[in-house]
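Student: Please help interpret what follows.
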Amino acid sequence: MTDPLGQRLWTKDFIILAVSNALLFSGFHLIMPVLPLFIADSGGTDRQIGLIMGSFTFSAVAVRLFTDAGISRLGKKTFLILGMLVCMLGTVGYYWADAVGPALAVRLLHGVGFGIATTMYATLAVDIIPAFRRGEGIGYFGLGTTVSMAVAPALGVWLVAAHGFGALFAAATAGQIIAALGLGAFSPVPAGPAASTGPAAAPPLLDRIMERKAAFPALLTLLTGIAISGVIAFVALLAKQAHLATVGYFFLVATSFIFLSRLFVGRIFDRKGHSWVILPGAVSLCVGQFTLSQAATTPVLLSAAVFHGLGVGILFPALQAWMVGLVAPERRGIVNATFYNFLDTGIGCGAFALGIVAETAGYPAVFLATAAVAVLLLAVYAAYLLTRPAVPAPCEKA
C-alpha cells in the first residue's frame, strides 16, 4: 500500500531494521524471565534482585544523554553497531557473574549497550516510516520484537532446564551477533557521521534527557514502566513460589496478545487519535496487574497474562507514536531517547522499590502495588482528556 506520493512502508530498509531489532530483543528476552532465578541461585535477596534488574535501566538512561553526540560523531548506523557490540559483551559477561557484585556490574554494562541500540533502532525506523502511517509503522516495527517476546522467554526457560545457564547466555549472544552482522552487511543506512555545518553548542542537560514537548506522554510512559516492572523482576519468582506452571507459559500468552493488539492498535491510533487506544490499554494493564496479585492457580496466572499482554501491546506503540508526532524530524532521536528514558526509569525505580515490597510483604503485594500504579496512570490520563477535550491528531505538532 502507498500514499499519493508513492511512499511505501514495507521497504527493504524497514524490513532489515525490523528483523535486526527483533534479534536484539530476542537476546534480551531469552535472559529476562530467568535472570531473577539466576540471581536468587547465586545468593541474591529479593531486594538485591530488584536492584540488579533495575540497574540495567539506569545505565540505559544515562547513556542516552549522549545520543545526539554519538550520532554527530559516528553516524546513526555506526553508533547503533557500537551499541550492539556492548550488548554482546554484557550478555557474555553473565556467564561469569555468579555473585551479586559481578551480576550488578554486568547488568550495568548490558544496559549501556541496550540503551544505545534501542534508541538508534527506533530513530532509524521512524526516519523511514511515512508520516501518514507512523502509528501503524511503529506498531509493525514492534511486531518482530513481539514475536521474540513470545518465543524467547519460553525458549530461555527450556534452555536453562535442559542445558543450564551457560547455554542460555550463548544463545542470547549468538542472536545479537547475527543482528549486528546483518545490519552491517545489508543495511543501506550510511555508516559515517552526518555532514556538519560547524561546531554547535552542547544542548542543556534537560534537553538531552527529554523532549519538553513530549513531557505529558513521557509521564504516562514512566507510570507504564513502573506498572510493568513487577512482571519483569518478580513474576518468575511468584510462579515458582506458588508452584504454578512454568513462567514461560505466562510470557507466551502475554506476548501472543501483544502481537494481536499490534495488528489493529496502530491503525486505530492513526485514524482516531491516542485516546481511543490509551484508555483501553490502561484499563487492561490495571486488570492484568490486579489479577497477578490473586494468581494462586495456573488459569489465573494465564488470565493475567492476557490482560497484561493487551495493555503492553496497546500502550507502548501508542505512547511512542504520540511522542514522535509532537516534534520536528530533527528531534526524533531525542524524542525516542525520551520514550525509552522514561520507560526504563519507571522499570528501574519500580523494580528497586518492589524488591523492598517483595522482601517485606511478599509477591502478591508487589502486584497490588503495580495495579495501583496502573490505576494512577488511568486517572492521570483521564484528567488530561477532561481538561483538554480537543485531542490533537497523532502527527500534529504541539
In short: The longest helix spans residues 134-163. Residues 160 and 168 are 6 Å apart (CA to CA).
